[in-house]
Each structure stands twice: as C-alpha cells, then as structure tokens.
Amino acid sequence: MSTLTCPDPLPSPAEDCERLHKAFEGWGTDEGSIISVLAHRPAAHRRQIRRVYAEIYGVDLLKPLDKELTRDFEVASSRSRAVLLWAVDSAERDAVLANEVVRKWSPENRVLIEIAVVRTAEELLAARRAYQNRFKRCLEEDVAGSTHGDFRKLLVPLVSTFRYEGAEVNTSLAKTEAKLLNQKIKDNDYSHEDVIRILTTRSKMQLLATFDDYNNAFGNPINKDLKSDPTNQFLLALRAIVRCITCPQRYLEKVMRLSISKMGTDEGALTRIITTRAEVDMQQIKEEYFKRNSVRLEQAVKKDTTRDYEDFLLALVGQVDS
C-alpha cells in the first residue's frame, strides 16, 4: 500500500512545471516548492510533468533538478539523489540503481537481488529495457562483466529471468526440489547449477511451496540451513533471495533498519528503499518496522536525517505536517 499523499484535484502538469521553473530561478533554489510538487504527485503525473517541462522549456527536467539541488541541498550529492531518483519512472529508477551497482560491484551488495526478486516479472523486464535505453548496453552483459565466479553464475540468470506469476503450483516438483536443495546444502554445494536454476527460474508461488516442503521434510527453514557460515557472502546472497521471495517487506524493513542504526546513516540504502517502495508497499514496510523496533519509521528517519533531505523522505513515507 502506498504512503504517497496527493492533493485532490491535482494541479495540471503545466501549473506544476511553472512552479518548478520558478523554484529554480533567482539566487537560491526554493527547495520547499520542489518538494511540495514532486513528493506529492503520483508516478503518472510526474511522468507528464517531465514531458510537459521539456515541451515548454526545451530541457529535460532532470537537468535543472540536478544543477540546482546539487548546488543548494546540504551534502548535495546524496540528498539531491533522492529527488532525482523519484523524478524518473520506476523502471528507469531501477536501471539507474542497477548501473550504480555494476560500476562498483562488490560481493556484499544485494541491490541486484532486490531488483530482480522483489519486482514482478514485468517490472524487471521494464527495468532491463530502461537500462538499454538509458545506458545503451544490456544489463545482463554488464552484470556478467562486473561479477565473477559463483556470483556471476547466480546473478546473470537472476536478472535475465522472466518468472511465471500465476498461482499454479506443481506439488510433486516442490517435494522433489526441496529434497534436491537439502542434499546440495548438506554437501556444501551451494553454487550447484540445480540450486541456481531453482532459485532463479521457478515462480515465486512454486518456490514458496518448495520452501514449505523443505521445512516440513527436514525440520528447518531453508534459510536456517544456509546459515552454516555467516561470513560467506555467497550464502548471504542465497539467503537474501529466499527472504525476498518469502517476506519481501520484512527484508526491506531490515535494509532500512540497518541503514539508520549504524554509526552514520547509509543514505544510499535509505533513499533507495523509500523512493522505490513509497508507491508500492511502504505502508506494510512501516508496519513491519514498528513491530520490529517499537518506533515509527517517520521518527527514525527524522532522527537520522536533516533539512531538505529529511523533509523529502518524510513526505514520501506519508508523514502529515502538524
């Protein structure tokens, strides 16, 4: 469920464009106006704003946003990034996030898993198309070029797949593949082609059935059996896939919790989760956050962020000004 709050009725795209253009003029940027417009408009309307802005002023809205926010937002690069990510379509946003990963990939990074598994099959396909359109390259090719070894074997098919999304489940196959997964885990053969094939290609409903059969047959959730070496980054990647399939909101809540519970906020992770989930399931993530921490997410964000960045993120998670 979305946490976005929008006026009713919405102003016309032309009115919003004029307000944004005025916010860019003069000696200082009017960040409040930028936030009041972009943080309170649904995706389809933001898409129209970007199109109409280019028609009226002859420039992509992202260019003045980048210029003005980088200049004026405090610690500009990380703070303005939130607005720039929010201003684009969800598919282009995922493409940008994926490109950031492949340019500086490390085994600890789980963003590709998040994009490939939490998104629907159509959303992942749209992100791959947006990646080609924006970067003139293939996402799968870039993932293959930036990763290596077992991670390449896992991540290339993960970002390439188009999972079936129907409700049908093959119960016999679920039992068979639960046994196969258990055997490979017992053998410490975590990167076996069958393990990768099952996790990267089976439908989410099929995998949920397989994980249930695994638990029933062997007395442990599969993720518990994948904890044999908590320092093994490949095992941690497999566990992330399982969690993104079984309980994506809890997985994303944990990413947010860790991003604001460290010495120094991980603004990249905080920005990514809020901008990608505000119009999808942020309400559920907020509920999970409160269950886990007994603190409202808005309070945690307010404590760990400041000024324009704080205002923008709070608007996206649905805080109503007092």
UniProtKB/TrEMBL annotation:
Family: Belongs to the annexin family.
Annotated Gene Ontology cellular component terms: cytoplasm; plasma membrane
Keyword Metal-binding: yes
Binding site for Ca(2+): F24, G26, G28, E68, I260, K262, G264, D304, T305, E310
Pfam families the UniProt entry points to: Annexin
Coiled-coil annotated spans: none
Domain of life, source organism: Eukaryota
Protein name: Annexin
Cross-referenced Gene3D superfamilies: Annexin (1.10.220.10)
Repeat as UniProt keyword: yes
Domain observations: A pair of annexin repeats may form one binding site for calcium and phospholipid.
MF terms (GO), sorted A to Z: calcium ion binding; calcium-dependent phospholipid binding; phosphatidylserine binding
UniProt KW keywords: Annexin, Calcium, Calcium/phospholipid-binding, Metal-binding, Repeat
GO biological process assignments: response to cold; response to heat; response to salt stress; response to water deprivation
UniProt cross-references to PROSITE patterns, sorted A to Z: ANNEXIN_1, ANNEXIN_2
